[in-house]
């Protein structure tokens, strides 16, 4: 991927009062997700009510930034033309260490992505804003030149 992701003309996220804390954290290169004060479970995407116990006592907490690739797609034909300069690129379902799954841009690693890959949060400037992308955790054996 030789194109600077920050130069892409991609659509901006739709920010609501509910999702504002997520996007504010993202802009600072951080990942915040909701946690339920009643059942203790982590919640993502942002909601007004816990999907596990229906409590409305949700608070925002910093996520570890660790996750695992649950599934992914190599996108050749983006849903928006703004992404065309970087196609093909990888979009994946990241199972966060806290439990919830989030859809995210997966930065290229040393090898092709695979289900089960360990991932780390990699805040990335895309289309003029910092978004919570993820990158593969490279193991020592994979870092050797081939
Ligand atoms: Zn709950």
Explain the overall architecture.
- The protein is mainly beta.
- It has one domain.
- It contains one helix and eight strands, in the order αββββββββ.
- The strands form two sheets. It has a five-stranded antiparallel beta sheet, covered by helices on one side. A three-stranded antiparallel beta sheet has the order 2-1-3.
- β7 (118-126) and β8 (129-136) form a beta hairpin.
- The longest helix has 8 residues, at 20-27.
- It is globular.
- The model has no long low-confidence stretch (mean pLDDT 94).
- Bound molecules: zinc ion.
- Zinc ion (ZN) binds next to loops.
- Residues 23-58 form the ChsH2 rubredoxin-like zinc ribbon domain.
- Residues 60-106 form the ChsH2 C-terminal OB-fold domain.
- Pfam families: OB_ChsH2_C, zf-ChsH2.
CA-to-CA gap between the ends? 19 Å
H/I helix tally: 1
**Share of residues in strands:** 35-45%
Order of helices and strands: HEEEEEEEE
Overall pLDDT score: 94
Shape summary: globular
* Number of structurally distinct domains: 1
Which runs of at least 5 residues are low in confidence (pLDDT < 50)? none
Helix content: under 10%
Give me the Rg, rounded. 16 Å
- Overall number of strands: 8
Quaternary state reads: single chain
Strand order in the sheet with the most strands: 6-5-4-7-8
Fold topology:
Layout: H1 20-27, E1 32-36, E2 42-43, E3 58-62, E4 66-75, E5 89-96, E6 101-106, E7 118-126, E8 129-136
Antiparallel strand pairs: 1-2, 1-3, 4-5, 4-7, 5-6, 7-8
The protein binds zinc ion (ZN).
Tags for this entry?
single chain; 146 residues; mainly beta; five-stranded antiparallel β-sheet; three-stranded antiparallel β-sheet; 1 helix; 8 strands; 5% helix; 36% strand; globular; binds zinc ion
């Amino acid at each position: 991927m030789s194109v600077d992701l920050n130069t892409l003309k991609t659509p901006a996220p739709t920010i609501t009062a509910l999702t504002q804390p997520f996007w504010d954290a993202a802009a600072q290169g951080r990942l915040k997700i909701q946690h339920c004060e009643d059942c203790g479970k982590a919640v993502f995407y942002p909601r007004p009510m816990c999907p596990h116990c229906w409590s409305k006592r949700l608070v925002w907490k910093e996520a570890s930034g660790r996750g695992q690739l649950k599934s992914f797609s190599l996108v050749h034909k983006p849903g928006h033309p703004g992404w065309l300069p970087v196609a093909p690129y990888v979009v994946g379902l990241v199972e966060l260490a806290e439990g919830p799954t989030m859809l995210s841009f997966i930065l290229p690693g040393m090898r092709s992505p695979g289900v089960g890959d360990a991932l780390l949060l990699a805040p990335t400037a895309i289309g003029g804003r910092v978004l919570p992308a993820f990158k593969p955790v490279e193991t020592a054996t994979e870092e050797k030149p081939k």
